[in-house]
Amino acid sequence: ISLDQSLYFYESAMRWADFTAANTLRRYEGAPAPATDPAKLKRIKVTGYDVLNTVPSDDESSVYITVKISYYDEDNLKLTSVTDNQVWQYDAEHDSWHISTPLPVFK
Q: How far apart are CA 107 and CA 98, in angstroms?
């Protein structure tokens, strides 16, 4: 799966607040995934996903992406945003890309 396909799938999942689907592309190297509150995630509604910056590594095996995610929590209906600094890494064994950073913290 190409980087563009992975990014499109991830962005679509995030826009629909389908964090379970987004997490299918997530891998943590040497550490367990940080805990997230499933009840809180169910209340989050994403209204915007804007890529601000994309920087590939010199060997193109990693890509650093900065995204602004606009969202609201159904409990307070206040529109807010979070900056998500993502690291995507190529897995040559599986010919695919995965994200190695956790979901952003939705406050």
A: 25
Task: Pull the structure tokens for residue 88.
Answer: 């995507």
Per-residue pLDDT at 51 exceeds 80: yes
Asked whether 32 and 38 are in contact (CB, 8 A), the reply is: no
Q: How far apart are CA 37 and CA 41, in angstroms?
A: 6
N- to C-terminal Cα distance for the chain?
Answer: 32
Q: Compute the average pLDDT of residues 76-82.
A: 96
Q: What is the pTM of this model?
A: 0.90
Amino acid occupying residue 38: P
Helix (H) or strand (E) run with residue 19 in it: helix 19-23
Q: Which residues pair with 66 in a beta bridge?
A: 53, 85
Q: 75 in helix, strand or coil? A: coil
- Please, which residues bridge with residue 98 across strands? 89
Find out whether 19 and 13 touch, Cβ atoms under 8 Å: yes
